[in-house]
Automatic annotation (TrEMBL):
The chain crosses the membrane at residues 495-516. The lineage of its organism: Eukaryota, Viridiplantae, Streptophyta, Embryophyta, Tracheophyta. This is Malectin-like domain-containing protein. Pfam families: LRR_1 (PF00560), Malectin_like (PF12819). Residues 6-307 form the Malectin-like domain. SUPFAM superfamilies: L domain-like. It is found in: Membrane. Its main location: membrane. It comes from Panicum virgatum (Blackwell switchgrass).
Amino acid sequence: MVAEPHRFPQPQERTLRFFPPSSVGKSSCYSLPLPPGRYYLRIFSVYDNYDSKARTPSFDVSAAATLVLSFRSPWPEPAARYGAYSDLIFPSATQPASDVCFYSLSTDAPVVASIEVAPVHPLAYDGATTGADLVLVNYGRVTCGNSLFGPGFTKDPDAFARVWQADVDFKNNDRTYDAITAGGRKIFGSNQPPNYFPTKLYESAVTTGGDASNEIEYLMPVDTRLSYMVWLHFAEIDAGIGAAGQRVFDVMLAGENVTRIDIFKQVGGFTAFKWTYVVENLTSSTLSVNLVPVVGRPILCGLENYAMVPLEMRTVPSQVAAMKALKESLKIPARMGWNGDPCAPRAWDAWEGVTCHRGDKGLVITQLDLASQGLKGFITDEISHLKDLVSLNLSYNSLTGSLPPGLGQPSLVSLDLSSNEFTGSIPGTIGSSKLQTALLNNNQLDGQVPERLYSIGLHGGVIDLSGNKGLCGVPTLPACALFWEKGGLNKTGKIALGASFGFVLLVILIVVYILCIRRGPYDYDFEFPQDLTSISAISAKWNRYQRAKSVMLAEMEAHSPDGFYTNGSPH
């Protein structure tokens, strides 16, 4: 809870979340399940001495793996006490989700009170040429001659949930201004795709006061070395202007005359008109916007200024998925801060223990060094998707389970899994031509060692298999049992087992054939009863035999005088 919640009109402004790096690591992220598209993101950050330390924190914020906001201590007093809204327009790529991450500087805990997201038309703000590769960070979105309005603050609608600030903090107040309104007249051409600029924006404006030669001047704070997209909004809402040429003025950006505007000539009266321009590579911390009169007095309804931040290269999606699977299977502790993109933004280091390099299709993971981190999970086979992995060190943990076949990356040069609790056999996939070091000592592995793995030591590499009592089949280790290989039956053992099973099956079939199929009509069962001690059962068996024998002799005498049965006449 903020220290003085009664001073905050919005419910979402009265509570905040902070991320102490000692327990959650250097980065903490919100994962937003957004389908591909463009989005308006608004963040409210407030300090208000919630921790009674009277020191605002320093931290960075990223969206779409791109550094977009920086907070540095000390904050301006109004921002520290009342909070500040920051917003931007960013593209969501084909990732399952977009991450908004907070990065701690030193030991400071990042803070955030609310995060809001709204979809934006894909062609908005010149999205056809900038949408795929740029984040547009708001450095000033103002309504001229009006008070603040927008969703969450007033009932005035905005299709993208944009908030329009009053211009009092941006005007050069050394100049004289007058405010004018449309007087209730209808404004045409507003709220149209793809930008959907709200009608209210064009219902008020500022113009110059006093001498007719006065200029309108706005001073917009910026960061140097970036390019800025400037949008100016106009509407001829003075009923006294009824023809082209009655109000003409020049637009100067950063001291350069970039265009001349005649609103009525462009769109007529009471009709929205917008104009945009890109100012490149600013070297000053202030961008000046001047409207210089040519005929009549200049007029301005609104102004937007966006930093054009290039979208940073991200980690290859398949490797992001593999790293998140490893995070779960290895039970990576929260203190290591495995959140967001493993390798981006580049201004910050990759995840703890992770080394990345630039690949053909994005950033790739080349090294994992997680030795002595107290890990107690297992290695998922998803590690096979780290196809650029050169070095893997998971030594001196308490990892269990079997070694996955996916550890056989062709790129792997060094593998150290020593001093864990791995069981089972060594997969035959381990042992690429590039592998020079294989340390599997002090585990609980068994079975025959693959020849391609053992050959590392024969070609100048380093291999250590000691401390595994069940391993066999190579020099320095016991010989494997006759039918044993790699933790199970080898080919010879399987053949022998199959032959034995076949022989037993053949014997069973022969017995069945003799006892069942070959039995004739006068074959009788002489099987002893189950109770061999029963004399009555044996006597009953003998009596049945004697009766059957008498019947058989009688039948034979009836068919033949000399006791033999014939199909034809007697001989």
